[in-house]
Amino acid sequence: MLKRIISFRLKQIINIDMHSSEETVKYQRIVVALLSLLSLIAVGYILYEAKSILLPFALAIFISYILYPVINAFEKFQIPSFFSILFTLLIGALILAFVVSLISTSIDSFSKEFPKYEPRLTQLTNDVQEFFDIPDDVLTNPSPENEDNLLGKILENFSIPSFLSGVVGSISSVLSNIFLIALILLFMLMSRNQLPSKVNRAFDPKTASKIANIVENVNHQIQKYIITKTLISLVTSGFVMVILALFGVEFVVIWGILTFILNFIPNIGSLIATALPLTIAFLQFEDPMIVFWLAVLLIVVQQIMGNIVEPKWLGKSINLSPLVILFSLIFWGWLWGIIGMFLSVPITVMIKIIFENVEGTKPISILMGGVK
Q1: Nearest to 207 by CA among 371, 326, 357
Q2: Quick check: helix, strand or coil at residue 286?
Q3: Residue 342 burial (CB < 10 Å; 0-12/13-18/19+)?
Q4: CB of 68 closer than 8 Å to CB of 359
Q5: pLDDT tens-digit profile of 115-129?
Q6: Contact 351, 321 (CB under 8 A)
Q7: Which residue, among 234, 254, 238, has the nearest Cα to 164 in the 3D structure?
Q8: Distance (Å, rounded) from C-alpha 354 to C-alpha 217?
Q9: CB–CB of 320/352 below 8 Å?
């Protein structure tokens, strides 16, 4: 009888302990989830508030991946590392100055020439009004002073010249940080070979080896992505400029430069790069078939370069889910604006590689990946 009582009490204690243990684990999971959420919110807040400090560093890192091959090429000719870096930065500065001058001149020319498209715009407005049987008091008399018509309000709040002036202002804002970016870039490039020895001194051999592998994978994949994307954007913009020139579309240089820049933005960049010159072509040519065939050729070029050439050149190195790419584009665009959109894929690739090499975050890395 006593044995039964003791056995019964032991079972009760064990059941209580097991129940208590399950409750503790459940509570710990809730705490970890809440702490993780709070940490993500805190990191997002810091990234947003400190973007004026972090963006120059992020841009310097992005540019450094483009410059590494040039520096290595100079060093192969037995040129000292410091002079290799200096020559590379000077070449980059000259190219940047030329491109900025070209953009500024082209935008100024575009602003001056745009008024000649206003009669065509008025004609198209009348055609749309007639086709859709829109009442006269909605679209007629497109004057900003008339508060009762829709087009007047649109014209009052939007004009192409002021928009382009805003673009120039944004470029000037970025260029105002160019000295800081160049300074960060210089020190980053000069100390690039010192990191492995510092890691070896700071950590035990096993940890140092793991960190070295992560850094090597990050560097290899991001550098491959940026260089490949740069070459593809150059080739794409070249084809676009040739096609536009053959059709006689004006401001070819602007559209070529914008195509090169916008192709770095995943998914939507190529759409915008195609839509902008087509808009001007629609205003420039009265024959819709010209615009149609121009659209066909531009779309074919973008599809071939984006869906055939780029995946072939990149292979499986940038294995990200399309949904993850879209989310990262929206997230980094919200945090850092258009520069965040440019940097969204390299940053996401870096995060994925780090997750791959940390035991607890490997499942997240798998979920971030595309179909192999």
Answers
A1: 357
A2: coil
A3: buried
A4: no
A5: 777 777 777 676 666
A6: no
A7: 254
A8: 9
A9: yes
318 closest CA partner among 346, 339, 340: 346
* pLDDT score for 148: 46
What is the number of residues in the chain? 372
Return d(Cα 130, Cα 136) in angstroms, integer. 9
Q: Where residue 49 falls among pLDDT bands split at 50, 70, 90?
A: confident
Range list of H helices, the chain: 2-49, 51-76, 81-113, 118-131, 136-139, 150-157, 160-175, 178-190, 195-202, 205-247, 252-262, 268-284, 288-304, 310-314, 322-356, 362-368
CA distances from 153 to 133, 138, 277 (A): 20, 11, 25
**E strand or H helix at 307, and its extent?**
none
Q: How far apart are CA 352 and CA 227, in angstroms?
A: 19
CA end-to-end span of the chain, whole Å?
65
The DSSP 8-state label assigned to residue 317 in this structure reads S
Cβ(317)–Cβ(221) below 8 Å = yes
Sign of dihedral through CA atoms 340, 345, 350, 355?
positive
CA–CA distance, 167 with 123 (Å, rounded to integer):
28
52, 100, 189, 246, 342 from 298: Cα distances, Å: 36, 25, 38, 12, 22
Residues 22, 17: Cα–Cα separation, whole Å: 9
Tokens representing 229 are 């994307």
Angle between helices 205-247 and 322-356 (to 10 degrees): 150
DSSP string, 75-87: HHTT--HHHHHHH
CA distances from 336 to 62, 180, 303 (A): 14, 18, 28
Q: Which residue has the tokens 């590379």?
A: 88
8 Å CB contact between 332 and 347: yes
Determine which of 140-149, 174-183, 269-278 has the lowest per-residue pLDDT on average. Answer: 140-149
